[in-house]
């Protein structure tokens, strides 16, 4: 088969057909996606609220984290459609447009997260390893321009998927898939397919990942040196946090992208498939969207302070409400000039002639 032509077959391969009928997929993916949605939606809403309205001043780091929260929240809000799709036996019922939007959101979220974390790692690398140069590069306008470039790059790179009907009717299974069976006609030749997938792998995953790993390794090394000299707990906590971010990054994004590359190569040139493994590892990339809010909490002092202030405010509000309820109860149980009120498990007696009141 020529690299400049396309295969003649228009039906899915046996491995893909087996995946579409696999009940493990029908159960495992909805369970994982439900967990992600339940954690990610409230977590990222709270994150956005704190980052946008309670972070002063708005720095370049905050702008990058806002972008990360927006992409995570957008993915999580579309996950219910994907949950229904897999729970319904991989049968899509929501139409072409929504199929394309949900599919594009998966890839935009993954690659946007990878590129944004790369920018955050670069910013922290400059701030910690080269602090004298940090004021030159860590500017808000640079962060805004970088985010715009990321979105334009992704929308351009994913244009073949955006302009193609990603639904496919598998007649002998009586189902309509969404993205699980790609049409060869999405690209003009085998060579185009190879360049498309390999380009995504190298430019949107491998190169940003190497930069991220390099930055965090240098950050950890610098923090260890600082910790050995000064011995403060702050540096040690920062080291552990940097290691967690690095491990999370590799765990969430490396398996899916490497398997996608291997699957594409063997599918194009050897007519084999690793699509089942690819679908399972795709869930790992979604897990980052519910992990990110917790990383903000531990990584950003200002974010942590605002989150604790929010929880403390709610706690104080509940205490005031309980106090008012107790006062109301005491006002309704006056008897012979006195009342008994239970507060914090203790019995207290009050004289009704006193003028003080919480109401």
Uncertain segments are: 321-359
Classify the fold: give the CATH topology of the largest domain: Rhopdopsin 7-helix transmembrane proteins
- Chain-averaged pLDDT: 82
Strand order in the sheet with the most strands:
1-2
* Helix percentage: over 70%
Q: Provide the β-strand percentage band.
A: 5-15%
Q: Please state the structural category.
A: mainly alpha
Q: How would a crystallographer describe the biggest sheet?
A: 2 strands, antiparallel
Shape: globular
Number of strands: 4
- Terminal-residue CA separation: 85 Å
Please identify the top-level CATH class of the largest domain. Answer: Mainly Alpha
* Gross CATH architecture of the largest domain: Up-down Bundle
Q: Please trace the helix and strand order, writing H or E for each element.
A: HHHHHHHEEHHHHEE
How much is the radius of gyration in Å? Answer: 27 Å
> Would you identify the CATH H-level superfamily of the largest domain?
Rhodopsin 7-helix transmembrane proteins
How many structural units, i.e. domains? 2
Count of alpha/pi helices: 11
Organism: Engystomops pustulosus
Protein name: G-protein coupled receptors family 1 profile domain-containing protein
Subcellular location: Cell membrane
Keywords: Cell membrane, Disulfide bond, G-protein coupled receptor, Glycoprotein, Membrane, Receptor, Transducer, Transmembrane, Transmembrane helix
């Amino acid at each position: 088969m020529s690299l400049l032509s396309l295969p003649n077959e228009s039906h899915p391969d046996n491995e893909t057909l087996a995946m579409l009928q696999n009940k493990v997929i029908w159960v495992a993916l909805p369970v994982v996606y439900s967990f992600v949605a339940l954690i990610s939606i409230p977590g990222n809403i709270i994150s956005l609220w704190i980052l946008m309205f309670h972070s002063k001043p708005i720095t370049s780091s905050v702008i990058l984290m806002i972008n990360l929260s927006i992409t995570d929240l957008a993915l999580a809000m579309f996950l219910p459609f994907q949950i229904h799709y897999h729970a319904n036996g991989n049968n899509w019922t929501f139409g072409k447009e929504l199929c394309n939007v949900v599919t594009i959101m998966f890839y935009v979220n993954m690659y946007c997260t990878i590129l944004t974390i790369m920018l955050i790692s670069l910013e922290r690398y400059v701030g910690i390893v080269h602090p004298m140069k940090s004021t030159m590069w860590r500017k808000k306008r640079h962060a805004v321009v970088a985010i715009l470039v990321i979105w334009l790059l992704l929308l351009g790179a994913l244009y073949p998927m955006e302009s193609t009907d990603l639904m496919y009717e598998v007649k002998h299974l009586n189902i309509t898939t969404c993205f699980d069976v790609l049409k060869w006609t999405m690209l003009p030749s085998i060579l185009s397919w190879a360049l498309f997938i390999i380009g995504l792998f190298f430019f949107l995953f491998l190169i940003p990942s190497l930069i991220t790993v390099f930055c965090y390794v240098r950050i950890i090394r610098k923090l260890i040196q600082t910790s050995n000299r000064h011995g403060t707990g702050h540096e040690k906590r920062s080291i552990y946090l940097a290691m967690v971010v690095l491990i999370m990054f590799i765990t969430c994004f490396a398996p899916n992208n490497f398997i996608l590359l291997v699957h594409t190569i063997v599918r194009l040139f050897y007519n084999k498939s690793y699509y089942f493994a690819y679908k399972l590892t795709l869930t790992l990339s979604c897990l980052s969207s519910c992990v990110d809010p917790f990383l903000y909490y531990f990584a950003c002092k200002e974010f942590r302070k605002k989150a604790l202030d929010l929880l403390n405010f709610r706690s104080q509000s509940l205490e005031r409400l309980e106090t008012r309820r107790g006062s109301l109860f005491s006002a309704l149980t006056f008897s012979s000039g006195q009342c008994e009120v239970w507060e914090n498990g203790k019995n207290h007696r009050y004289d009704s002639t006193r003028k003080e009141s919480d109401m």
